[in-house]
Amino acid sequence: MTEPSFTRRVPGDDERARDICDHCGFVAYENPKIVVGSVVRHEGRILLCRRAIEPRRGFWTIPAGYLELGETPEDGARREAAEEANVRLHMDRLLAVYSVPRISQVQLIYRARLADPSFSPGPESLDVRLFDPADIPRDELAFPSVHWALDHDAEAEAGAPPVPFANPQGASGSVMPNGERFGTDEM
Amino acid sequence: MTEPSFTRRVPGDDERARDICDHCGFVAYENPKIVVGSVVRHEGRILLCRRAIEPRRGFWTIPAGYLELGETPEDGARREAAEEANVRLHMDRLLAVYSVPRISQVQLIYRARLADPSFSPGPESLDVRLFDPADIPRDELAFPSVHWALDHDAEAEAGAPPVPFANPQGASGSVMPNGERFGTDEM
């Protein structure tokens, strides 16, 4: 078996450059990816997972990941929470639609509640905890959009109308609130 | 050059079956796709495009298509409208988030207005017209979600709160309102 080898060029029936296999002509179309996740509350506290994998190993995040084929976004958000924190969720509603064009992601973030109070780290998590909102380790959050989602969830909890939030004005997910610039991966 | 040839099996570092190239071992990850589109209004009328391409050639649709890499959903919806109807849009707000898991699509549909009243068919359209809502050819709409989007836009126009709509209760995009069952492609 040979090694994968692709050349970037425009296929005959297309207008954009794509990665085309040098061996067989297969066109590896790349599309933006859908991330589904949830801000999970239980008795006023918020569930966060400490990442066991790169990028951002050791940092805290909401349960979230790539939507799989054949899933609804709500089902995907439930699956990710089950995989990362061994929880069962009651889905509430769509909290936010974020766009991170630098890494070609659209994120659909839901509000959810624990169906029962049991949780534990899945294979991609070092730790899972319920945090009082005031105790969330803000300097140890994994991604800009985790900040956004927690802020927007707090606004929703305080009575904001149930309209999904979007990226904060001017933000594209490239900078952490502390000014740290972001690399090429997110979530 | 040989022909593309893939075998479906679970890669060593994965839990799901993927298409793997028989020649070089390249894993062709397939992800759900994001469709972005808009219900476009101009002076009380709604812009529709008659499809020049399969699936559903000859049927009417709202401007919509696949989000490309590096785009925000709003930019993608604007681009699709420009390509299909040669229009410039003012984007209003997110009208709906639909899920069609059968074909692994998530659709983000926006409300929009024409920035100026000029329009004409792009290469993927046979015709582009502004319809009075009462005159929309309901029996000649391309996809279930076009029905949903037009219904939801009418509700928004009638004063429904600005919360994005979702699939009609129990609907997964497999059946047209007239009972016709749907094939394997959509949009």
From TrEMBL, chains A, B:
InterPro entries to which the protein is assigned, alphabetical: Nudix_hydrolase, NUDIX_hydrolase-like_dom_sf, NUDIX_hydrolase_CS, NUDIX_hydrolase_dom, Nudix_N
Region ranges (Disordered): 159-187
Pfam families: NUDIX (PF00293), Zn_ribbon_Nudix (PF14803)
Keyword Hydrolase: yes
UniProt keywords, alphabetically: Hydrolase, Magnesium
Cofactor(s) needed by this chain: Mg(2+)
Gene3D superfamilies (alphabetical): 2.20.70.10, Nucleoside Triphosphate Pyrophosphohydrolase
Keyword Ribonucleoprotein: no
GO MF entries: hydrolase activity
Sequence ranges assigned to domain Nudix hydrolase in this UniProt record: 31-156
SUPFAM superfamilies hit by this protein: Nudix
Family stated for the protein in its record: Belongs to the Nudix hydrolase family.
Name of the protein in its database record: NUDIX domain-containing protein
The organism of origin for this protein: Fulvimarina endophytica
